Amino acid sequence: MTRSALKAVADDLDIPYYKAVGDECELFEHAFRHRLPLLLKGPTGCGKTRFVSHMAARLGRPLYTVSCHDDLTAADLTGRYLLKGGDTVWADGPLTRAVREGAVCYLDEVVEARKDVTVVLHPLTDDRRLLPLDRTGELLEAPDDFMLVVSYNPGYQNVLKTLKPSTRQRFLAIEFDFPAPEDEAAIVARESGLPEERVAPLVRLAGALRALKGQDLEEGVSTRLLVYCATLIRSGVKPERAIRTALIEPLTDDADVRQALLRVADIAL
Ligand code: ADP
């Protein structure tokens, strides 16, 4: 093998596995090239985070991922003065670091964050692409290879926690859903090492459980949970036990709903 072919193989190995389910990879590349921010919408565990790590590696950019929560403030993203020894030193937050380095910054579940976060995001997401750091007096201009990606899960139906139109209309948006059954079986087989023919019934069961969403369940089984289930089976756990632990118990605490889900599993398998 030539040196450049070897390098191509090595580069490929460094790229996290992601199976495209549509044109999302091309859209991401267009957005990156044109310096446009991107919003990924979709249920938890359907591949959004993996997609962003795959694309950042493919584009050769470092990635800063922040899982947003309801205590996360703008200063957690931009940075703050810290006491070190007797001195106060400025420490960049992940967003500031991403802007300085020309990296991809991924804010997972951005609607969870405090309201002051949107104030920082607005000047970064219009054509000025600026990050003002009030505390240090700096005004950073994002380089061409900086990209902001945010995600949220519209399924939680929390009216208080949704993105304001003035914020969401600053992003291109791609909707994610669970992959089609053949794609999902291939993904779960690859991630868990369980042969595809043994994964296929689990994917069918996930489809049956997802059909119950909205009745007694807030969320359907994620691809992530399917990977967990297949991993347990591959490691020698009996399928019934793996299904209960990975596909049923995480979905509900209600004894009646659990019984109903177990019946669905009995019928589906
Ligand atoms: P999200 O960010 O949407 O909550 P993740 O990206 O963490 O979900 O996905 C959960 C897991 O599901 C991943 O770790 C990966 O194993 C698997 N997965 C889901 N979709 C894909 C895909 N299209 N290609 C590869 N792996 C996937």
Mean pLDDT: 91
- Give the helix tally: 12
Structural class of the secondary elements?
alpha/beta
Largest sheet: 5 strands, parallel
Within the largest sheet, what's the order of strands?
A: 2-5-8-1-9
User: What global shape is seen?
Assistant: globular
Distinct small molecules: adenosine-5'-diphosphate
Helix content: 40-55%
Strand portion, in percent?
Answer: 15-25%
Sketch the topology as an H/E string, one letter per element. Answer: HHEHEHEEHEHEEEHEHHHHH
Radius of gyration: 21 Å
Give the end-to-end Cα distance, rounded to a whole number of Å.
47 Å
Number of beta-strand segments: 9
Low-confidence stretches: none
Features of this protein?
alpha/beta; two-stranded antiparallel ribbon; binds adenosine-5'-diphosphate; 269 residues
3D structure, described in words:
The chain is α/β, with parallel strands linked by helices. 45% of the residues lie in helices and 16% in strands. The protein is built from twelve helices and nine strands. The chain has a five-stranded parallel sheet, sandwiched between helices. β3 (79-84) and β4 form a beta hairpin. α8 (181-192) packs across α10, α9 (196-210) packs across α12 (255-268) and α10 (223-234) runs antiparallel to α11 (239-248). The longest helix has 15 residues, at 196-210. 33% of the residues are buried. The model has no long low-confidence stretch (mean pLDDT 91). Adenosine-5'-diphosphate binds next to α3, α8 and α10.
List the helices and strands and how they pair.
Blueprint: H1 3-14, H2 24-33, E1 38-41, H3 48-58, E2 63-67, H4 74-78, E3 79-84, E4 87-92, H5 94-101, E5 104-108, H6 116-124, E6 130-133, E7 138-141, E8 147-152, H7 165-168, E9 172-175, H8 181-192, H9 196-210, H10 223-234, H11 239-248, H12 255-268
Parallel strand pairs: 1-8, 1-9, 2-5, 5-8
Antiparallel strand pairs: 3-4, 6-7
Helix pairs in contact: 8-9, 8-10, 9-12, 10-11
